[in-house]
């Protein structure tokens, strides 16, 4: 590809994430941002960007690739329309409100096998995660036994009024919004799970979706994991502990645009053994610190390379998106009391 012929890109949804995607596109040597769409014109701040309020008009432009950065209820409709129009499509997480939304996108993907479809799970591109994945893949510490993930935030000003806490827009609460990243990382290190047990609740925020979700899961290889996804974690927290046969990895913190989850570092510990071969407690840890988040850039770069080289999307493909959403839905459904209360609340509002 020459500098005279760049891929034309468009962004639908110009909120915080949409603005990040615009910046990634404008900094990429093989991309040209030709259109930005948002229902609120005040969000489109940069001069020179062609602005639309109707996403259908952006589809009609037939850009080479499109980034869908809208609220959850529009993701599947826009993604399907883009694929049907012959446009390579990138969707932010979560990939819709439920499994059905993802399946609609996958159906359109199968009808257009020449197009690339990618979903935004940028946590996989954090250097701490990639370093941990390399250790696991090389089996330097043996196989994964179990994992424990905590991902939580304090909600923040106006949290109870945010669209993410309206189930018609979002499909769920903190689990589908933020916890889905942790679930995707679980899949990255062990693959899918077969059994799930959970407790879901709205404990503090007076909203119709969950502000806390706790779940344990196990796969058919006996590997186990547990997650706590919380909107009442007053200290913003990201922790992923991975315990293996001969040691452990601890990922703490995640660099972000707000830096409220920083610092980001990876602890690596290898077990020491006594004369009889028993592991000794409290092995020495080595710590790697990270001061640069290139996850958003790397994610876009890989998507572009998949298009230019006509190769399959390896990270954040539709199988990854479906697996993450299926696990979210399984966690919701396993707490029967929560499911009943949620349905009752919806029925009451309809009356």
Would you summarize the structure shown here?
This protein has helices spanning 16-27, 55-60, 72-84, 99-111, 127-137, 167-170, 174-190, 295-308, 318-334, 336-350, and strands at 7-12, 31-37, 51-52, 65-68, 88-92, 117-120, 144-152, 195-201, 212-218, 224-230, 237-244, 247-252, 264-270, 285-290. The protein is α/β, with parallel strands linked by helices and 351 residues long.
What does this structure look like?
This protein is an alpha/beta fold. It is built from ten helices and 14 strands. An eight-stranded mixed β-sheet has the order 8-9-10-7-11-12-13-14. Strands 3-2-1-4-5-6 form a six-stranded parallel β-sheet, with helices on both faces. A hairpin with a 5-residue loop joins strand 9 and strand 10. Helix 3 packs parallel to helix 4 and helix 4 packs antiparallel against helix 9. The chain is globular and about 70 Å long. It starts with 6 loop residues before the first strand and ends with a helix.
Keywords for this structure?
alpha/beta, eight-stranded mixed sheet, 14 strands, Dihydrodipicolinate Reductase, domain 2, 2 domains, 351 residues, six-stranded parallel sheet
The main sheet comes to: 8 strands, mixed
| Distance between the first and last residues' Cα | 58 Å
User: What is the ordering of alpha helices and beta strands?
Assistant: EHEEHEHEHEHEHHEEEEEEEHHH
Tally of separate helices: 10
Number of strands: 14
Structural class: alpha/beta
Strand order of the largest sheet: 8-9-10-7-11-12-13-14
Any idea what the radius of gyration is? 21 Å
The CATH H-level superfamily of the largest domain is Dihydrodipicolinate Reductase, domain 2
Average the pLDDT over all residues and give the rounded result.
Answer: 94
